[in-house]
Write a structure and sequence with these properties.
The complex is a heterotrimer.
Chain A lengths: L8 H11 L9 H4 L2 E12 L2 E12 L3 E5 L6 H7 L10 E9 L2 E2 L7 H7 E4 L10 H12 L4 H14 L3 H4 L12 H13 L5 E5 L7 H14 L5 E4 L3 H7 L2 E9 L6 E10 H6 L4 H7 L5
Parallel strand pairs in A: 2-10, 3-8, 3-9, 6-7, 7-8
Antiparallel strand pairs in A: 1-2, 1-4, 4-5, 9-10
Helix pairs in contact in A: 5-6, 5-8, 6-8, 8-9
Chain B lengths: L6 H10 L2 H22 L1 H23 L2 H6 L15 H32 L2 H16 L2 H20 L10 H25 L3 H8 L5 H12 L1 H17 L2 H6 L17 H10 L7 H35 L1
Chain C lengths: L16 H36 L5 H5 L12 H32 L5 H15 L2 H13 L9 H25 L3 H9 L4 H30 L2 H4 L21 H9 L5 H34 L1
Helix pairs in contact in C: 1-11, 3-6, 3-8, 3-10, 4-6, 5-6, 6-8, 7-8, 8-11, 10-11
């Protein structure tokens, strides 16, 4: 899993570039310069079962990208293939290309650990470690870099501030993370992800376990940090997608002949305003207008 | 889990059945339920029998031998004249064998558990699990024979760097008891690791650490109380093991912590004294029960601790 | 052109030498733990087989246990084991099924009865096996029952000893029966016991069988309590009834292993091979039952 091999960076970057023809939907020339990640014909299999078929999209700076769609459409699966979390599932197999600043995420120059450090993730249910608040945030920096105690304190404070949690916990950093409320725990998980200084933040239905007030705080937080960290958020809540995102990808399911298990697919990918006002695809229209799923 | 038939179903049947049959059916159901209840109380009877077999002779024992003698001395010759009843001779040996066993079983078991939990591919797992199961199902007498016939002459006596080693010694016994416990320790520790929510492990990997850092930094602390419970159960097993110690450590009860010497533990004393046909109405015979009570109390306390710890562990995640 | 090219960006591993060395060391320790178990098992099996191989012949299998190394056999021990273990397994199994059925089907999980019996079972499971020997000595071999050192004494004691294992296995098997089976029976107006007997127990049979074979294996390999109950003896005939004297395989291994004459080591190893073969047959049966029931589901 930790293979690092010899092809030179330049040759690989060049080869991956020659494949790129800029023909990505939703991409206009102004946005192109800001693109951090892009997926081309990205499919994910679980064993022989095709879970999502050939998704193509891109993620740019200063933007929140939302993945929406009915359950089982593979939006979480695609999200998890953007930082190689699918590697942890033995049967999962990724086909297609994911580029991060021109480097193939699944190529020989990418180490899964480093990929995950660069591309952070926040999960559906808050999943703090059974440690203190401080140790939760400090876990990533401790393993990834050498910090002195005071530097580490600084990183922890900084991350907690960015996650808008500092004021609530600064007096009890040594308290167990489990003593926090659900919404606070989720912001702690965001702080934990930010503490390793990622480039992109992936969020997998981060508010599905939270009440509306806590959800509002997380959404505010997302808007505040999106200038620093491009965000991809999976949500089942269309209003949330409409409220916070700049770009939206709509996924749907289709049954492929021989098996009963439905395969997910990316139906449409565009600016959020356009997606919700005049989508091109019939299925998107019926979904966003609430007629389906 | 229990289910009750719906009210309608009962009424429907009541109307259909003649009242005599109805009556008989109710009585039959009652009888069956009572029989089953009595059956399930057999376990309680067994536990009372265990306590009941231990306590009266132990009380008699302490009327003949003072607490001061029992807990205050380090010589143990209950079956000789003049007898000496200093439990510390057996306690020191029990502690010694237990410590050696734990030094083998806990790191070995934890290592195997981490390996199975995070490193092993499905294929390796498929071979490793049955191997551990075979080891777990190995009769203790087989381990005992292995300890005395192989480990003591070929390993302990050859490699012990600090002077002479008795043929029967605490070290061989402890090492093999450790191997005997290792599979159980592995299974319990891995169960504890498995019951950590998957989301937690994913959350850790999402921060980019290596497998080792996830194991030591997240899995270990998260499963800690489960791991502690499995260590406590292992302790209890090591303390109670009789046959291996009896075969490999010999029968000289002495107050020592030297692993190269022949020793006698609480459990192996009971086995040793039980072989000889003691006269039933003698202090020597009652010694078996006194030591048995002591052994029972120690393992009982350890069990309660592990049950408590496991319960707290569950509460954290449920 | 759709990507910013930033030559400073790299996704190669940033795990430095020190971290990597620690990783390697950690993995080496894990392998050490695994190898400790695996190598010991292999050495144990090979050593025992090499030592006992010379005794694997008809004379050994048909001879009775004997204080003379050249006559030493295992027949009376094999039959003694069967006479002791089979009744122990069956009686323990019946009690276990009754207990499991009562706890799972007639009481609620949070009820006091269940909490009480659960604690009892957990406590019994943690009692060292030698203590069951004391119990047998005090109440069965001597004391109120006064059965002496006979087959039935050993059988009763082993039955009590494996009871917790049997109960846990039976409960798990019963719990694994889908609740739709029960609902189906209740919908037809069955009483609770009818439902248990006709639906739940038949469906739980494979699980109970697999689990109880593990319990029987434990009884077959157990030595400690029987040391105190007269099994540590040379017996020159097979038992013919429950009131007979007996020895069992683990105890003849023990007896041979403690003889001063080194000739007996071969007999001990030979008897181990026989015991392991019997355990193998038992466990193979369990695996076959498990696979069968999986296929039929």
């Amino acid at each position: 899993m930790n293979e690092t091999t010899t092809p030179t960076a330049q040759s690989l970057i060049a080869s991956s570039l020659s494949k790129g023809d800029g023909n990505i939907p939703g991409v206009n020339s102004g946005r192109a310069a800001q693109i951090v990640m892009e997926a081309r014909d990205l499919s994910v299999y679980y064993g022989d079962f095709l879970a999502v078929r050939q998704a193509t999209f891109s993620i740019a700076r200063n933007e929140i990208t939302a993945f929406i769609g009915p359950s089982g459409c593979g939006k979480s699966t695609i999200l998890r293939s953007l930082n190689r979390m699918n590697d942890l599932i033995h049967s999962a197999r990724v086909v297609g290309t994911v580029l991060y600043r021109g480097i193939d995420l699944y190529g020989p120059l990418a180490d899964p650990g480093e990929v995950r450090r660069r591309i952070g993730m926040v999960f559906q249910k808050p999943n703090p470690f059974p440690k203190s608040i401080y140790d939760n945030v400090a876990f990533g920096p401790r393993v990834n870099e050498k910090f002195t105690k005071s530097e580490l304190d600084g990183v922890v404070e900084d991350s907690l501030r960015k996650a808008a949690l500092w004021d609530e916990v600064k007096d009890r950093l040594k308290a167990s993370a489990f003593s926090l409320s659900g919404g606070q725990q989720q912001r702690l998980c965001i702080a934990r992800a930010l503490a390793v200084n990622p480039d992109v933040l992936l969020m997998d239905e981060p508010c599905s376990a939270l009440d509306p007030i806590a959800t509002g705080r997380i959404e505010d937080l997302m808007r505040e940090i999106k200038s620093e960290y491009p965000i991809v958020i999976v949500t089942h809540n269309m209003q949330q997608a409409a409220r916070v995102s700049d770009m939206t990808a709509f996924f749907s399911v289709e049954s492929t002949g021989d098996t009963n298990r439905p395969t997910g697919m990316l139906v449409e990918y565009d600016r959020t305003v356009d997606m919700f006002s005049h989508p091109h695809d019939e299925r998107t229209l019926s979904y966003v207008s609430g007629r389906m799923g | 889990m229990s289910f009750s038939p719906s009210q309608e179903a009962i009424e429907l049947l009541d109307n259909l059945l003649p009242s005599g049959a109805q009556q008989r059916r109710r009585i039959y159901e009652r009888v069956v339920q009572t029989v089953l209840m009595c059956t399930s109380f057999i376990t309680v009877i067994v536990l009372f029998a265990v306590a009941g077999s231990l306590v009266p002779p132990t009380i008699d024992f302490f009327q003949e031998v003072s607490f001061g003698e029992f807990f205050g001395r380090t010589e143990w010759y209950p079956l000789f004249e003049p007898p000496a009843y200093g439990i510390w001779a057996l306690m020191s040996a029990t502690f010694l064998v237990m410590t050696i066993a734990i030094i083998v079983a806990v790191p070995g078991g934890l290592a195997a558990a981490f390996f199975l939990n995070q490193y092993a591919s499905d294929r390796v797992r498929r071979y490793l699990k049955p191997t551990l199961e075979i080891l777990a199902g190995m009769p203790t007498v087989v381990f005992g024979f292995f300890a005395v016939n192989f480990v003591s002459p070929n390993i302990v006596q050859k490699l012990w760097p600090f002077g002479e080693v008795d043929f029967y010694n605490a070290l061989s016994a402890g090492l093999v008891v450790g191997i005997m416990i290792l599979p159980m320790m592995t299974t319990l520790a891995e169960d504890a690791m498995n019951s950590i929510p998957k989301a937690l492990i994913e959350g850790a990997y999402a921060l980019g650490p290596t497998k080792r850092e996830v194991c030591t930094g997240v899995i270990f602390p998260s499963a800690l109380s489960g791991i502690i419970a499995s260590i406590v159960i292992s302790l209890s097993r090591a303390i109670g093991e009789t046959t291996i110690v009896l075969l490999a450590a010999g029968a000289s009860a002495k107050f020592t912590l030297n692993p190269a010497e022949s020793v006698q533990t609480l459990a192996s004393f009971i086995g040793f004294a039980g072989i000889g046909d003691q006269e039933t109405d003698s202090t020597g015979y009652r010694t078996i029960f006194a030591v048995g009570t002591f052994l029972f109390i120690i393992t009982f306390i350890l069990n309660i601790i592990s049950i408590r710890v496991v319960r707290r562990f569950r509460e954290v995640y449920e | 052109m759709s990507i910013i090219l930033d030559p400073s960006v790299s996704l190669t591993s940033t795990v430095d030498g020190k971290r990597r060395r620690k990783d390697m060391l950690f993995l080496a320790l894990l392998w050490f733990g695994i190898l400790l178990a695996v190598v010991t098992l292999v050495v144990l099996l090979v050593d025992t087989f090499l030592t006992g191989r010379s005794r694997l012949n008809w004379e050994f299998l048909s001879g009775h246990t004997s204080p003379f190394a050249e006559d030493a056999g295992v027949q009376s021990a094999i039959f003694g084991s069967l006479w002791v273990v089979l009744p122990a397994g069956i009686s323990s199994l019946l009690i276990a099924i009754g207990t499991a059925a009562y706890l799972e089907e007639f009481t609620k999980p949070e009820s006091k009865v269940q909490a009480f019996i659960n604690l009892t079972i957990q406590t019994l499971a943690g009692v060292p096996s030698i203590v069951y020997g004391i119990l047998g000595l005090a109440f069965v071999a001597r004391g109120p029952l006064d059965w002496g050192f006979t087959v039935r004494t050993a059988s009763v004691v082993l039955a009590m000893m494996i009871l917790p294992v049997m109960i846990v296995a039976s409960r798990e098997a019963i719990r694994a029966v889908p609740s739709s089976y029960r609902e189906g029976a209740f919908a037809l107006g069955c009483s609770r016991w009818q439902c248990v007997r006709q639906q739940v127990l038949p469906a739980a049979v494979p699980g109970i069988a697999t689990g109880s074979i593990l319990g029987v294996s434990r009884a077959l390999g157990e030595s400690a309590p029987l040391i105190m109950l007269g099994a540590l003896a040379y017996v020159s005939s097979n038992p013919t009834g429950f009131g007979d004297y007996y020895t069992v395989l683990p105890l003849s291994i023990y007896k041979y292993a403690t003889e001063a004459d080194s000739e007996f080591q071969y007999a001990a190893a030979g008897a181990i091979i026989v015991l392991l073969a019997m355990l193998l047959v038992l466990n193979f049966t369990a695996i076959v039952i498990r696979d069968r029931s999986r296929k039929s589901l």
